[in-house]
Amino acid sequence: MHYQNLGKSDLKVSQISLGCMSLGTEHASNAKIIQQAYDQGINFFDTADLYHQGQNEESLGKALKPIRQKTIIATKVGNQIRKDGTGWDWNPSKAYILESVNHSLRRLQTDYIDLYQLHGGTIDDPIEESIEAFEQLKKEGKIRYYGISSIRPNVIREYIQKSNITSVMMQYSLLDRRPEETCLDLLQEAGISIISRGALAKGLLLDKKPIEYLDYTQEEVAKIQQRSQALGKPLAQAITFVLQQPAITSAVIGIRTMAQLKDVLNAAYDEIKEEALTQLRKVLKPKQYDEHR
Questions:
Q1: Nearest residue to 240 via CA among 198, 260, 269
Q2: Total domain count, the chain
Q3: Quick check: pTM over 0.85?
C-alpha cells in the first residue's frame, strides 16, 4: 500500500481509504471488514455523523478502539438530523459544529478526530463562522486537522483564501471529470489534498445496468462501460484513473463485504497502462460546472 501526507499535515494516509458509509448496521460484521482492511494496509477510515444516524460512527469507533493510535479517522459534520427522524437540515453554524463534535467523539470512542470535515457547503454559508469553529476545536485538541467535502469551485476558493483546510473531499471518476476544469490544479497549487469519492460511479463503471448519470445519457454510460470492459480490468482502471491525478492523495472506496474488499485491494495493485487510460479519457467529453463557478 502506498502512503502520502494529507496536504501539509503529518497525517500519512493510505492511497485507498475505507468508505464506511457502505457498511451495514451489524457491528460484528463491520469489525471484521475494518480489521481486515487495516491488516491489508488501509489506515484511513472515513465516516460521518449522518450515516445511519450516528450508528456508523459507533461501529467504526468500536472496531478501531484497540488500534486507535495506528489509524486515521475522518468524520463529517453539518447535516442536522431532525428530531422526528424525517430527514436532516443543513447547519454549518459555529454553535452546531462545536456541539456536534462531542457527540462524534463519544460515538467514535476517542478523544480526538484526525480529520473533521464540513459535510457540504454553499457560498451563502457563514463561512468565517464555520472556520472559527474548526480553529477553536484544533486549539482545544478535539480535532487535529479539518477540511470540507465540496465540489463547488466558488466555495473551495473561499476556504483556500480564508482557512487552513488540509483537504477537500470531492466526487471524481471517469463519469464525473468536472474537477479537472478548475479544482484539481487549484488545490494542488495550494498544497491541499483531494480525497476522492465515487470512483466507481455507483457501480456504473463496473457491471451495473447503464442508466443516466449526471449529464450523461444512458447510451453514453453504456459506451464507456463497453470500452472499459474491452480493455479489461474495469475496477482497476476506475481506481487507477483517480489515483494517477497528482492532486489526489486517497480514494475513498465504499465497501460492504469481504469479497468487495478483496477485489478493491487486488485492483489497487494491478498495473494499468497509460495507453488504456488515454483511450478511456477519449470516450466521453468531460462535463463542466454550470453553477458554483
A1: 269
A2: 1
A3: yes
